[in-house]
Amino acid sequence: MPTINDVAEAAGVSASTVSYVLSGKRSISAATRARVERAIEQLGYRPHAGARALASSRTNVLALMVPLRQSADVNVIMDFVGAVATRARRHDHDVLLLTQDETTGLERVTGGSLVDALIVMDIELDDPRVDVLARLGRPTVLIGVPRDPRGLSCVDFDFGGAVGTAVEHLAALGHRGIGFVGSSPDAVARRAGYAVRVRDGFRAAVAAAGVAGAMSPVEASLPGARAALAAVRAEVPDLTGLVVHNEGALPSVLAVLAEEGTRVPQDVSVVSIEAADASQHLPGRPTSIDLPSLEVGTAAVDMVMARLEGSVAPETRLVPATLTDRGTTAPPRRGGRAGTRRVSPSRRR
Amino acid sequence: MPTINDVAEAAGVSASTVSYVLSGKRSISAATRARVERAIEQLGYRPHAGARALASSRTNVLALMVPLRQSADVNVIMDFVGAVATRARRHDHDVLLLTQDETTGLERVTGGSLVDALIVMDIELDDPRVDVLARLGRPTVLIGVPRDPRGLSCVDFDFGGAVGTAVEHLAALGHRGIGFVGSSPDAVARRAGYAVRVRDGFRAAVAAAGVAGAMSPVEASLPGARAALAAVRAEVPDLTGLVVHNEGALPSVLAVLAEEGTRVPQDVSVVSIEAADASQHLPGRPTSIDLPSLEVGTAAVDMVMARLEGSVAPETRLVPATLTDRGTTAPPRRGGRAGTRRVSPSRRR
DNA sequence: CTGAAAGCGCTAACAC
DNA sequence: GTGTTAGCGCTTTCAG
After folding, report:
1. Which of A176, A117, A104 is nearest to A333 (CA)?
2. What are the residue boundaries of the HTH lacI-type domain, all occurrences included (chains A, B) (predicted)?
3. Ordered DSSP codes for B183-210
4. pLDDT (0 to 100) of residue A194
């Protein structure tokens, strides 16, 4: 591998000039620059990352801590990881992968000066890693909003806004009784982060729209779906709108409606809150609020880079979701010829 | 951050002694070692990765190139990535993430001495990256076996063995007519790597068992499944055994059998070849040959490390799959009380 | 607009 | 068993 000195010699300049050509940190005459660039080209020169890191205290690598086991939706994670990797390259950075189960990973890579920024996924409401990260004092972005971010920046889906949009959409169509079936009880218990925001968002939206609302968790199974539907209907008897925030349980919910003979959207309108990108093109999906995993990943990188470049204030950014109408919502009851498509009962995911 | 000199001073030794305590590359008296270790502990010392890389030409980082877009099974990829990351740590290495779409990534990270070994997923039969990798001259392991590995090591599932095991299992039960429905036509066309091995494996196994066999590709849809079944039955009229190598199409195949009134396993025995770990615990899965993504990831790391440590010969390792009986195979026709469970028609995945 | 030179923190001969 | 020292390849003052 050629070194910066080889390049300097080939170009007939000093090593520092080559360095400055590369970094652009001082002005270089066009002629010199051309000679240097040509030498770099010819020799196939690449700066040695370690040497550069040693001299500059910048590694141009950012760490991404990913939940690998058991975790929620693999598609979302992959989309997200892809977005981070892609965006990081645009900031001239590479991505070092850290896994959840290696608890000391964060200390190791920062202490060892392997990376100069951190993005940590899947932050829970009282995540113990937040303390660690705050102590490390590196530019950090949390995916998910903990109770106390301790001066760190956060990004997440705007769950509150998403459920609000869903409710508003249904209310605008004329629905007066709206049910929400959400995460499994365990999920809620485990990392109530978004669950809280969803709950508050639903309550606020229902109140603002002046409609009746009821919430229930739901397990991803037919009995689970039956129970959840029964629960919200018990509370709101004239329920005609349904917001589902549980991709796993969605098929069961639709299957239960079908087996009851409840037509969608003629009898009940359905809006699903789910990850964008994942299985985006599958036929037969309901109207949905799409959570933009890609945009969250991109935002996370931009935010962490901003802090690296010296931006001072930590920020919390909630990326809005948008509604995609796929014909599973319509005005309630006798509302003329309502939606177009109807949900086929035996659909699979 | 404390440096090695701080540690040396605190311990009352020279910097090189600290270095040798850390590397174990020469013997140190117990007393000295204890003092050094205590100083390291107290100061919270971590060697600077860049400095170490510069001095030793070893980064302790390996690059993993992952297919991010469109790719086959996300679950498999995640399992695999997890296995690589975990195993790499046991070799005291970290993992740098490279994505498929950044074509120059491999040159960049090797040229820049960012990593000292490479694992590249999703290698196709005539993958252009193989040439590049061979030229780079770093320890490399390919996931997937190209037509010409050009001196690089490869790991992959033993697809040939997997289909062989499936056929043998069915033949041993007494089946004399066995069908194989496999990847979608496009997949086969695109990266015929494993498709070829599957085909040859099936042919060989069928011949060895002395039974009749027929193969067909299959699309992941009900019409696709019908067509594939018709195709293999046309060739083997008394077909009683079915091997499915297409996780996406499996539900459709089972649904078609159910709608025909064909009982599993009484009328037809079914074996699926699919990724292990992914949705391992879902109920209602058929007897399967499980492709061990986790083991392939682990093997990939071990192999690349072996080459880093100086092992000379490149090797190609095919990780065997094992059969898990879930009661969807039984002796054909009047064969007494056959399998136990039966496949429910409306199952989802 | 360009060079010379002093490190960055560590490893690995080379000494004893 | 331990210390001394010369780099590894780059960035960045300091000088001109």
Report:
1. A176
2. 2-56
3. S-HHHHHH-HHHHHHHHHHHHHHHHHHT
4. 81
CB–CB contact B49 A112 (8 Å): yes
Burial class (CB in 10 A: 0-12, 13-18, 19+), A226: middle
Tokens coding A48 = 């040695």
B203: exposed, middle or buried (C-beta count within 10 Å: 0-12, 13-18, 19+)? middle
- Taking only the tens place, the pLDDT of each residue in A186-230 is 766 666 678 888 889 999 999 999 999 999 999 888 888 999 999
User: Quick check: A57 pLDDT over 90?
Assistant: yes
**A52 alpha-carbon distance from chain centroid:** 32
CA distance A318 to A300: 11
Q: Helix, strand or coil for residue A114?
A: coil
pLDDT recorded at residue B349: 31
Q: Kindly list the structural domains of chain B, giving each domain's residue range(s) and its CATH number in brackets, ordered by start.
A: 4-56 (1.10.260.40), 61-157+293-320 (3.40.50.2300), 159-286+326-348 (3.40.50.2300)
For residue B159 the two structure tokens come to: 């697809």
Interchain CB distance below 8 Å, B95 and A94: no
A35-44 as b/e: b if 16+ CB within 10 A: bbbebbeebe
Quick check: B346 and A346 CB within 8 A? yes
Q: Is B74 at the interface with chain A, CB within 8 A?
A: yes
What is the spatial distance between Cα B238 and Cα B218, in angstroms, rounded to a whole number? 20
DSSP code of residue A320: P
Cα separation, B252 vs A28, in Å, equals 66
Instruction: Report CA torsion sign: B114, B118, B124, B130.
Output: positive
> Measured between beta carbons, which residues in chain A are less than 8 angstroms from residue B224?
none
**Using an 8 Å Cβ cutoff, are B242 and B253 in contact?**
yes
